[in-house]
Amino acid sequence: MIDYTRRLLDLHISQATNSLHKAKSYSYSDKHKEKYQSDLYVLFERIQEAITKSNPKEDTEIFKYKKHLDFIFKSLEFLGSSTLNLIPYEIVECLRYAMSDWVDETDNYIIVTSLINNVEEFSYDPEIAFNDQLYSDIKECYGGLTFERKLVQINLPRSLSRDYLSSVVLYHELGHFIDIKLSIMESLVLDLEGRYVGEIFSEADINQIKVYLPFFERIESKPFADLIQVHLAEYFCDLFASQYIGEASNHFLSYVTEKSEYYDSTHPSTTNRIQVVKDFLDGKDNIIVKIISEATKRVTKKDLVIRFQKIISDDFYNLLPVEISSVNQLHGIYDYAWKLWLASTEELEAKMELQKPISSEKVYSIINNLTEKSIGNFITLHKWNKVYLEKAAI
Amino acid sequence: MEQSILGESSYLNGENIKRLLEERKLFIRPLLEMSQIGGVGIDFRLGYDFLVSVQGRYAFINTSMNNDAGGENERNIHHFFQATRRQIGETFILHPHQTVLATSLEYVKLPKDCILKLNMRSSYARLGITVSTIAQPGYCGCLSLELTNTNNNPINLTVGSRIIQGLIYKMSNTTEYFDVPRKYVCHVRPEPSAIALDKDLKYLNELWKIDNNISDS
Prior knowledge:
heterodimer, A: mainly alpha, 15 helices, globular, B: globular
């Protein structure tokens, strides 16, 4: 009689063989990615050896191997879209700078992107980076095999991978990585529950919180506490992103959610999210900004502050890339690009040396090109100066 | 400024070029070293994006709107090029007799009265690499480099290296780059030929149909 589950494990192994074979064509400039992929081949060999040796028949053991094969598939999915030809390199470099503000050991992480055939699919996938149990199982089962670096998996639409206006959303997605890694909102929910139970909040505070977290008074119930944490995480990520990109993601968010005034199980209402970001940027009192800022400071010892420098320049109007002089200005390029996109036709036509009338498509193309080149030039100069100035000093 | 034998137009020496940069009439971003500006021109560096010519499913690259030989036009050209990228400092191999579209690392904006002519630097020309590019007055964007290796051996090039020399000619008058519709504006990556946008091809196609009693149906 055929062992049904075991036969499906064999199918999974055949599929993995095929996927790993195809992945041999992936070529990386980044040796960390290459090393990660080499480790996947080693892992697969050891899984095969272990299966041959143990000949698993029990579901529990078979599913253990399934999880390890899933890890290979998930890793390949992201690595495959992260070769230099495909990865949105300039945007990812900006995210790496932002990450370094919050994580000391950035070298332990590789930001990878999966290009998804869905125009709304901007998301963070925490499946691999924080699965400590999985890494520990792999180490134990396969002779101490370790993955030195973890993948930070960010999904974005394939068709918008070089769209520098909508890509501001990726800062929000990076915020999810930071939040989960440092357990900021997890800590905040526990703190809020304690303060609520201890009747530390005034009625006025509670009423204000309820505007943004309608279930707040049910925080003692686990399902509601979870929902509150999910909503707080979204507010946190909005604030995290706005440190670097100002209001830029609000423009995109309000459009894609059709200015929704309603919350759902995964997100607060768009109107509330936009208000929180506005109040943060304008330095106005807002209970959500206050509690999230306090929690962030408590957990990370870092402040939520505006970390981008506004770019004051007519360079884009003059059809020139901006000469970015600092990392803060680097993040500021998105705010600058959005300002140009939102400028009136009259202003564009008065300032830009282009044949009139200027079409939106032309402006879109120019903004994307100049943003990419401005970031690219900063990265090039940074790398060049590092070597050139060091050599000159000798 | 040195006088041309043709009259008031002239080519610019290094000092003139530096002055244009200072006066913010000429823009080169990034300019990694001021020494790129030599006595008679500017050295430009190889950029990191490439369009490599490949053999596709179409029999030939169609630069005509006539359909007597089959094939479509604009989309057809894209089938013959594949995008690839390197990082600065990495190498790119140029195979014998292959055409590769690259760009300069530098984004350039020219004054309205200056034309830029590009040649391979002598050290690269001696290896058999050719380029043929002119940028018109007022042009803005990375410079398109159509590199061909006429050598029988592959040659690897370092991204970021100075491979091109540009000579700037000052004209006696200014021209407005955007007075006519432009196919290439602020490009920072190599773009395949936009030959299909040439209006005269439409007229020639009409003429061909009329001459040969060819109907659209």
